[in-house]
Amino acid sequence: MPNSLQLQQLSDSLEGTLFYDELHKKLYATDASAYRIMPQAVAIPKTEEDIVKIIRFASENKISITPRTAGTSLAGQTIGNGIIVDVSKHFTKIVAFDAEKKTITVQPGVIRDELNLFLKPHGLFFSPTTSTTNRCMIGGMVGNNSSGTTSIRYGVTRDKIVEIKAVLSDGSFAVFKDLTSDEFIEKTKGDSLENKIYKTIYEELSNKENQEEITREFPKPEIHRRNTGYAIDALLKSELFSGTEDTINLGKLLCGSEGTLAFTTEITLKVDDLPPTNNIMVVAHFHTIQESLEAVVIAMKHHLYTCEMMDDTILDCTKTNREQAKNRFFIVGEPKAVIMLEVGSHNSMEDAELQADTLIKDLQDNNFGYALPKIYGADIDKVNEVRKAGLGLLGSIVGDDKAADSIEDTAVELSDLPNYIADFAAMMERHGQSAIYYAHAGAGELHLRPKINLKTKEGLHQFRNISTEVAHLVKKYKGSLSGEHGDGILRGEFLPFMIGDKNYELLKRIKKAFDPNTILNVGKIVNASKMDENLRFEAGRVEPDIKTIQDFSDSLGILRAAEKCNGSGDCRKLPSAGGTLCPSYRATRNEKDTTRARANALREYLTNSEKENKFDHQELYKVFELCVSCKACASECPSNVDVATLKAEFLYQYQKANGFSVRNKIFAFNSKLNKFGSIAPSMTNFVANLPLVKKSMGIAPKRQVPLLAPKTFKKWYEKNKKSAENNSFKNGKVYLFCDEFTNYYDVSVGIDAYELLTALGYEVIVTDHEESGRAFLSKGFLEEAQEIANKNVNIFKDLISESTPLIGIEPSAILTFRDEYIRLAKDKEGAEKLSKNTFTVEEFFKREITAGKIHSGQFSDTAKTIKIHGHCHQKSLSTVEASFAMLNLPKNNNVTIYNSGCCGMAGSFGYEKEHYEISMQMGEDTLFPKIRATEPETAIAAAGTSCRHQIFDGTNRKAMHPVTILRDCLK
Asked: Residue of 49, 636, 762, 768 with fewest CB within 10 Å of its CB?
């Protein structure tokens, strides 16, 4: 085992980075599986030479290296006790492309969807379509032989392998590609490691007894989705080994080998013509699981592009997920299962309709499905998003009984599927269990997940017993224990049983030929650890009792809120994938700056810290530092991991032990300070923006401290409210929340809101109330935030109703009533009642437009082009579509919404000198380029005060609040 001096010497020799601090080791100790193994170091190589150095270091020091890309493996493939080698940051290049031959060469860190964005203009795509396509990487897909939803039409990753360039275990390079029999035999001659590999393969697979044993024991050849050990059965197809194919390619052996044979640095793939654009999805609804699987046999007689299943557990999880709740529109009644059946035509939509109707008639004639709706266009993508979110949604299940991934990847021949599942259901009943069913029914593969509490010894016994019985059941049908997720730790133990002892020993000899010093991803596939060891949770442990100021009872405590993260890595998607999650990762491309890292680090320290205050760790401060509390994770993470809320609690608890800095106090108490500063606003503005003052406060020199308005909005309101008393308020009364930003800085926006609402027939009341508490929340001053929440709930709970709502101008302020106040307020019932009638001003306008109280005739016919940038909290807790509805009301307004992610300002974050550059990088990721490309005469709408400041600082364009734009549209 290398010591810290040796690790430092390795670090100094690399162009990339080597981490061996406790934080990074903890972050890379888990992936998306149930396992946890602490590595000795984490390497982020920049070059192939770096990888060679790491391999040679591992060989000299007799430690394992584990290749890793997105870290979304479900069987523990990307964790290990040696050096984790993460190529996701730097190995991201498309090396070569041949449109005529339909081949492309990429480095292993290229994201699958990014690859397809490159290929689309050429009419091509890389077809394997996993649920993680917006963050999974080609290296990982090759390592696991990924399949996904399209395998029934396009095949699996192994089918796409043309060539693999790899570093062997001695640091030498080899290229694996199609070879004739003569070329293969020629490769066996010589003394290099590559020669020895070819010689071993030739000798082993030329043996007739070995060939017969492989044919007898491996899964049925009709099962195309199979990751059982090494793909030696695929090599037997070559004429070299009595097969019919005239070439052989060891790249196909590396595909699915989980980094245990060589370290891949370049991959050449075959790509396919784009699928048809005339598509229809039939979503068949069933009362039972068994009926749905029997229907699959009928459905697969048709020309389907996808045949995917979801059960009621996953569908129910969508009800509590803000993002996926929008995508439930296709559900009819309360199905036990649905199957998504997609047909398509390159010719015409009429042809697709004919296919869909024929499919529906066939199902109906066989009495399958109580509802068979047809889905079209963009709605098909929404249905697929629900299916893709399946694994993450299961993480949102409250409590310790989780959907365990013990048996989640079995595949059998399609005709065997109904009987296999019937046997499986009977077995589960014997265990007093019910499973969750979803995924690739058309390929004979279902992701089956029993609910098991792995924190208990009883649960651990169930984990093993069910896995063992399922292995026997799969063997009965001559199926594959892994269809696409790999053996790893989870299934490696069962390989001798699944393929026979002789074949297993053959795999070990092949592993030895490739890796004589046993350094490549040790303990995966062969010589695997026990499947019930090295788990995230220690069975029988005493759960720590963590006291918090916020109410985490909806997750049964803050620890379980962090444990919702199952590692699926949705937070690693890039800007091209859309949405906002996760701004800091998009800016840095560092695992440390993901939502997953924050949840994992918090889980680690809350579980294992021996300190009285378990939050009191500098490592936690580091991992939370770049979180901008955008709340994208609260909606876009399918497991509902709300890191902004976790961060607020962490900052409070951490600062209780370590003190609150002067700068944090200035930002947190900003509203209180502004009360005094507004007495002489011009002087305050001058002093606050002096270079020396900004330096002393730790504010970035390039930022202008926001300017106090000459008069507060409250003062303006008190002076002007009487002038509206004679108006006819035909539309009733509203309470306008005077947030601290509108009151002191954006007074003109407050005036616009007041005058707009008044002109439209609403009596606008601004009562005496507290600030929102947003600044306190962002800096972890939770006692102060709680006091404010209590006061505001008491003030408004009896004033606000459906007919007299509370509306707010600044999203981050008004939405505290719907979010943080529920966790903070002592009067929880009052807070929840109040939240139901609290709206952003845009939401209120949309409601009133729908009710017919506001109409286009009240506005000018002058044409305006408007583009909307949504505030992060709007996107997560509300909807930007409300802004669209509001601004689109004047009939000649042309309104569109930017797909713009996070602006990067995030309140005080972007003003802090150490965060200025990263803040601007967040803006550059999506928003700034789109603003710069916008015509000068186009109005830019942004509801957030921070967003407007960031847009100006980053693009020199002035954005306006939607109420200001609509106010200018009044007749």
From this structure: 768
